[in-house]
Amino acid sequence: MKPVSLLAVLAGGTLFGFGLALSTMISPEVVLGFLRLHDFGLMLVLGGAAGATFIAYRFAPLVLHKPMFEAHFGKHASDLNRDTIVGAVIFGAGWGLCGVCPGPAVAGLGAGNWPLLLALVGIAAGAYVHGRFFAAAATAPKHSITRETSSPGQRS
Amino acid sequence: MVESLFPNGVSHYLAGGLLIGAGVALIFVLTGAVPGMSTVFSSTWSYVSRRPFFQQPRFVTTRAWRLVLAAGLVLGAFAWWSWFGPPHGVQTNVSWWQLLGGGFLVGFGARMSNGCTSGHGICGLASLQLPSALAVLTFLATAIGVANLVGLLGSN
Q: From the list A56, A77, A125, which residue is nearest B107 (CB)?
């Protein structure tokens, strides 16, 4: 990515983090309050974010041939297989246990919520154990398999 | 009705959600990148692990901007804290084992499912992807079940 694109990502990420903090999603208690059906605010956060994003995803490619600074519009990699659903069950169990998901775990540090460091360490460890022991490169999304098997960086 | 569903009000949830969406939209329009937050927890391992899974092009070629995105989240939350936040930071009373253990499951599950609340919930739903919609319903149902179970057992 070009330096100017990295600056754009930093600016977008700053809005993202400000929004997470303003909407109190960096308080696990608020997230757990939603999951225990005491306060449905999280639905407004998710709905507002997905709605604004939907407009950009839907209309930007119609108006622009390509992103302002880069060559291609990306797409969220979405495959439906056993891992998608089993992973979602495991993710949900963890989310229900701690009330922290990856975005707030990162953003919370900027607002002085230090205990979230524990969640951050847990998430990083979980992602490592998944990649190290449970994800053969062959189960990766199709587009990367051919390049992966012939990659010179492949050592174990 | 509104008071019982949203005892803490609605405006900060809506404003925060729209800001999150604006950040994701800005990144998409300027760079074409689709910023789910859980991938950074796999892609960053590619700096230190030679395992083929972590060395896939989809991680290696995006790891720099994903870290910049994470820095943006911290920066944005810090801006909110400086202007509006509690002087001593956002506090959490969720126990350490819930944060660490729940975080581990969150990291493992999100990577197995290839998305979290932002990847499947915001980016996936906004691009109307069925796998993401099923993943969101699955992790919401699981998280609601687990959070209520933990609540019944008397933890935070």
A: A125
**Low pLDDT (below 70) residues in chain A:** 136-156
The CA distance from B25 to A77, in Å, is 17
For the beta carbon of residue B12, count every other beta carbon within 10 angstroms: 18
Q: Do A91 and B96 touch (CB under 8 A)?
A: no
Task: Give dist(CA A92, CA B33) in Å, integer.
Answer: 26
Q: Give the pLDDT of residue A156.
A: 34
Alpha-carbon distance values, A147 to B41, B50, B53, B59, B61 (Å): 22, 15, 12, 13, 13
Query: What would the pLDDT profile of A97-113 be if each residue is shown by its tens digit?
Result: 999 999 999 999 999 99
Six-digit token string for B129: 């992807």
Distance (Å, rounded) from C-alpha A92 to C-alpha B70?
Answer: 22
For residue A15, the tally of other CB atoms under 10 A from its CB is: 23
Chain B residue at shortest CA distance from A80: B131
Output the pLDDT for position A75: 85
- Whether residues A112 and B89 touch (CB distance < 8 A) is answered with yes
Q: How many CB atoms lie within 10 A of CB A95?
A: 32
Q: Give the pTM.
A: 0.91
Cα–chain center distance at B60: 21
Dump strand ranges (E) for B10-132.
none
Flag if A106 and B37 touch (Cβ within 8 Å): yes
A108-133 b/e (C-beta count within 10 Å ≥ 16 → b): bbbbbbebbebbbbbbbbbbbebbee
pLDDT at position A78 is 78
Tell which residue, A6, A101, A106, A15, has the closest CA to residue A52: A15
At B92-146, the pLDDT tens digits run 999 999 999 999 999 999 999 999 999 999 999 999 999 999 999 999 999 999 9
Q: How far is B46 from chain A (nearest CA, A)?
A: 10
Quick one: pLDDT at residue B7? 94
